[in-house]
Every structure is written in structure tokens, then in C-alpha cells.
Automatic annotation (TrEMBL):
Enzyme class: isomerase
Organism this protein belongs to: Desulfobacula phenolica
Name under which the protein is recorded: Peptidyl-prolyl cis-trans isomerase
Gene3D superfamilies: 3.10.50.40, Peptidyl-prolyl cis-trans isomerase, FKBP-type, N-terminal domain
Reaction equation(s) it catalyzes: [protein]-peptidylproline (omega=180) = [protein]-peptidylproline (omega=0)
Length: 189
């Protein structure tokens, strides 16, 4: 078989495999969309469950007394994430330590929810797929269009202030070396 023909055959095979995978994702996605919509509809009627305009649902377990983070803050939390069937896909509790991350660097549902939470709060979050991982899913455990449930404790905001406090410049043989001492201040907003 000539090289050009072989390349064409391989491209067609690859396209067929991609189409098949996409069809499987769509089928799985339809089931997950229906299950998510049904869950969120029933859940919205439960006592204490609040709905935001975006579709995020949450239940306040404990309201903290600290300040609320901004979308650009780095936050520290404990959480456990589950799919609708109860499968735990991630848990900082199991790892035995909190997790820190920039609030604007996570799924939309987390960003929105954490901005509602004061430091020390404990919430249950119910995140529709469009505020979670959407059509892509994540890591094999979260299927496309999955609605997620999270138990989240918002510990604190971490503000990092960088300052060039001690700048030293030293010539060393053929290159310039500069030292910058970075001050990291952890504070509660």
C-alpha cells in the first residue's frame, strides 16, 4: 500500500474512532444531563437548600464569621467531592490536609460558592454540569455532563503580598546574580 493511501486510511480510521467516542459521550451525557436535572429539581425543594441565578445550589451547614473571599484570592479549604451515585472522586479529608488554590483557577461552581462563604463556613454544594466540568468530564471518574455534590469547609483566604525587601546585586565572574527576598504574608481579609 502506498504511503499516501496508508495515511488516508489511518486518518479515516482515526476520524471514525473520534466520532464513535463522541457518540458515546453524547449518549452518556444525555443520561447525566437528565439525572442532574432531576436531582437538582428535587433537591431545590429540600429544606435549607438555596439556589443561585446560575443554577448552583447550596445548603449552609455552619455559617462562618470571617470575611468572604474575592474571585482573585487564594483560599484554603477542606472538601469531599461526589458524583450523584455517591462515588467520591476527590477528598482532602482522605489526604489529611487542606487544599489551597486560586479561586479563579477552579470550576465555576467552586468560584461562585466560595465567594458566598465566610471564613469558617461549612456548606454542601450541588453543582450543575455547566458550572463543573461540562461535556469534557474529568479524570475518568467524572463523566461528561455530571452534576457534582461537594461538602466544603472554607478555612481562610490566603493573601500573598510580594515585596522586594532585600535586593542585592552582586557581580560574579561573567554574570549578574540578583537576590530577591520574597515576603509572604498570610492574613485574613
Amino acid at each position: 500500500m502506498p504511503v499516501g493511501e496508508m495515511q488516508h486510511t489511518m486518518q479515516n480510521f482515526q476520524r471514525a474512532m473520534e466520532d464513535k467516542k463522541q457518540a458515546e459521550q453524547m449518549e452518556s451525557g444525555k443520561k447525566n444531563i437528565e439525572a442532574g436535572e432531576k436531582f437538582l429539581e428535587e433537591n431545590s425543594k429540600k429544606e435549607g437548600v438555596k439556589n443561585t441565578e446560575s443554577g448552583l445550589q447550596y445548603k449552609v451547614l455552619t455559617e462562618g464569621i470571617g470575611k468572604k473571599p474575592a474571585a482573585t484570592d487564594t483560599v484554603e479549604t477542606h472538601y469531599e467531592g461526589k458524583t450523584l451515585d455517591g462515588t467520591i472522586f476527590d477528598s482532602s479529608y482522605k489526604r489529611g490536609q487542606t487544599t489551597s488554590f486560586p479561586l479563579n483557577g477552579v470550576i465555576k461552581g467552586w468560584t461562585e460558592a466560595l465567594q458566598l462563604m465566610a471564613e469558617g463556613s461549612k456548606y454542601e454544594l450541588y453543582i450543575p454540569s455547566e458550572l463543573a466540568y461540562g461535556p469534557a468530564g474529568s479524570g475518568g471518574m467524572i463523566e461528561p455532563y455530571s452534576t457534582l455534590m461537594l461538602h466544603k469547609i472554607f478555612q481562610k483566604s490566603l493573601h500573598f503580598y510580594a515585596a522586594f525587601c532585600n535586593t542585592s546585586i552582586k557581580w560574579s565572574k561573567s554574570f549578574l546574580t540578583a537576590w530577591f527576598r520574597l515576603i509572604v504574608r498570610v492574613s485574613f481579609p
